[in-house]
Amino acid sequence: MKEILRHIVKFVLNLLIVIVYRPKTVGLENIEKGKGALLCANHVHAFDSAVIILNNKRKINVLAKESLFKNWFVKFLAYIFGVYPVKKDSKSMESMKISLKLLKNNELLLIFPEGTRNGMAKGVKPKEGAVKLAIKANVPIIPIGVQGNFEYFKKIKLNIGKPIYYNVSKEDSNNKEVLEKLTQELMDEIVRLRDEEI
Q1: Running DSSP on this structure, what letter comes out for residue 115?
Q2: Which domain holds residue 56?
Q3: pLDDT tens-digit profile of 77-110?
Q4: Element (H, E) at 169
Q5: Which of 42, 75, 106, 128 could join 36 in a cystine, given CB atoms 3.0 to 4.6 angstroms apart?
Q6: Helices and strands: H and E segment counts in the chain
């Protein structure tokens, strides 16, 4: 029943997204069937996660701050689409546990390394959590460049890159300098995809 409901709601929401943002997606073949992966994109707008989720046949899970779940509509969408509430407390291991469980079950998880909308433009240092998680779960990161500013009736484009695999030793996986370097390389690839003409 839940799966049927998800397809119905997804169809309706996708129709609205198509009318308002006319999305174009390139590189869907880079998201392999039946394999766990982290999807990492630049964070442009509140709706960029919706566009990414709705433009993929596979279910994409997302973590969201607990406070958002006070809204009944968010709760409803969370139930259907796989949105998990987590505490904003940085010391909480809850988000890591949920993420690892999803990835080890060969599911997809969407993360924004910027940590906030337009973080790069604001000079916010990207978070190393995505790379650390990918290494720990032994899954690739699939970078996504979101193109467009989400103005009504102007095209939004998703440029999905090739999977990035990490062959990192256990020692280096906890080395801050190594994680910072790999995170910067990931952000450079996301920026390249964001700026590439498609």
Answers
A1: S
A2: 2-195
A3: 777 777 887 776 555 677 888 899 999 999 999 9
A4: none
A5: 106
A6: 6, 7
Tally the domains of the chain. 1
Q: What is the CATH number of the domain that holds 94?
A: 3.40.1130.10
Dihedral of the alpha carbons of 142, 115, 189, 165, in degrees to the nearest 10: -40
Residues 6 or more apart whose CB falls under 8 angstroms from that of 72 comprise none
84: left (phi over 0), alpha (psi -120 to 50) or beta: beta
Cα separation of 58 and 117, whole Å? 25
How high is the pLDDT of residue 91?
Answer: 52
- Determine which of 51-60, 101-110, 121-130 has the lowest per-residue pLDDT on average: 121-130
pTM of the model: 0.88
| Exposed / middle / buried, residue 180 (Cβ in 10 Å: 0-12, 13-18, 19+) | middle
